[in-house]
Amino acid sequence: MSLSLLSFLASPALALDLQAPTGLKQGHVATFLVTGGTPGATVGVVYGGPPPGVCPPVLGGLCLSVSAPVLVGTAVVGGDGTAEIQALVPQAAPLIDVRLQAAQAGANPAVSSVRTVPVLRAHVGGLTVTDAASLEVARHVWSTTLGIELAAGPYPLAVSLPIEETLWVFVTGGARDVTLPALRTVDDVYVGNTPGARVSAPAWVSGRVGTSSIETQDNTGPVTVDAPALTALSYVQLLRDAGAITISAPSVTTAVSFNIVDVGGDLSGVLPTLTTGANITITGYTAPDLTLLPALQSADSVIVGSNPGLVRIVQLGVAGMTAGQVQVYGNPLLTDLSGLAPAAITDLGYCATNPSLPSCACADLVAVAVRPACEQNLPDTCSDDPGDLCTP
């Protein structure tokens, strides 16, 4: 490239900043934002190889940090010091990492730091990461028609992928720290057999057809899913997890189905801001204390059944929540359900076969139901005869 073509590429050190996409999509227009420029000056963006770069005299002693620079485009800096440059990424662009740099010519030459971004393609089918080579393939994909699985294999435990749209993301024994900074659309995120896993998807908003789901399974250690922008969940399932589960999605206020089966870890961090749930089922819970959904205000049904280790319901919903149906049954060690205190049950309150639970505790729960039922719990002395409130 000639010096005349490079004459616009300059800057006082650190005066300019280049904001680039997380990836350059084949066949798509890429937008670059340059900030910190001098109003009225011309700025440009180039790409090139690794150092050493070129140091044309117009840079006043500054150098570009890319070799063999190729011009992407130029723009005039506006009054706010910013300029936007757009360029079409060729459909046949090679799937490599591209080094980008912005520069300004004129009386106040300046160069930005280098931004390195991958060229990305759309993938037909699914992807499975099992080693360094398949990870490198996934690093250059922005969408899949099926999903992407991070399976067990010899590759780094910390992984960041540029995927934006996919059907599902499965973490199944490989990477422990998964960052998906550009992911906006995914139907299902699943973490299985990966204790200590953390999945961060800060841009995830929804699934391809609207709502999304989150599933965890067979994790012997803690698991965290962080989705601050997610707005709706159709399904949450926790299955045979022994470690603490944290699902942080503060923008989600409604979940359609919530299923917990054979879990023994701390669940207090699972959707602590959720206010509305359709169907909530807890079975096979093995830990003594249950704290879940502390902000829940209403639910179509709440079922706590056949939990062999459950001793105390510390909190399940807010005090005075409303529920279409509440059932508490088959919990052999349950002695305290004071943390479940609905103000209204519109369909059926059922509290039975909890042999360690005082009858009046059940009576207090089911008394708010239209058709209460209470049987086979521990007899005791109540201020009101439980028989008046419970139908055998």
Jot down its keywords.
Immunoglobulin-like; Leucine-rich repeat, LRR (right-handed beta-alpha superhelix); elongated; disordered N terminus; 7-stranded mixed β-sheet; disordered C terminus; mainly beta
Detailed description of the structure:
The protein has 392 residues and is mainly beta. The chain has helices spanning 3-6, 132-138, 359-366, 386-389, and strands at 17-19, 24-25, 29-35, 42-49, 67-76, 83-88, 97-104, 110-111, 115-123, 127-129, 141-144, 148-151, 158-160, 165-172, 177-179, 185-192, 198-200, 212-217, 223-226, 233-239, 245-248, 254-261, 269-270, 276-283, 289-292, 298-305, 312-316, 322-329, 344-352, 373-375. The chain has two domains: 8-118, Immunoglobulins (Immunoglobulin-like), CATH 2.60.40; 121-385, Alpha-Beta Horseshoe (Leucine-rich repeat, LRR (right-handed beta-alpha superhelix)), CATH 3.80.10. The strands form five sheets. A twelve-stranded parallel sheet has the order 10-12-14-16-18-20-22-24-26-28-29-30. Strands 2, 4, 5, 7, 8, 9 and 11 form a seven-stranded mixed sheet that branches. Strands 13-15-17-19-21-23 form a six-stranded parallel sheet, with no helix packed on it. Strand 29 (344-352), helix 3 (359-366) and strand 30 (373-375) form a beta-alpha-beta unit. The model is unreliable at 1-14 and 383-392 (pLDDT under 50).
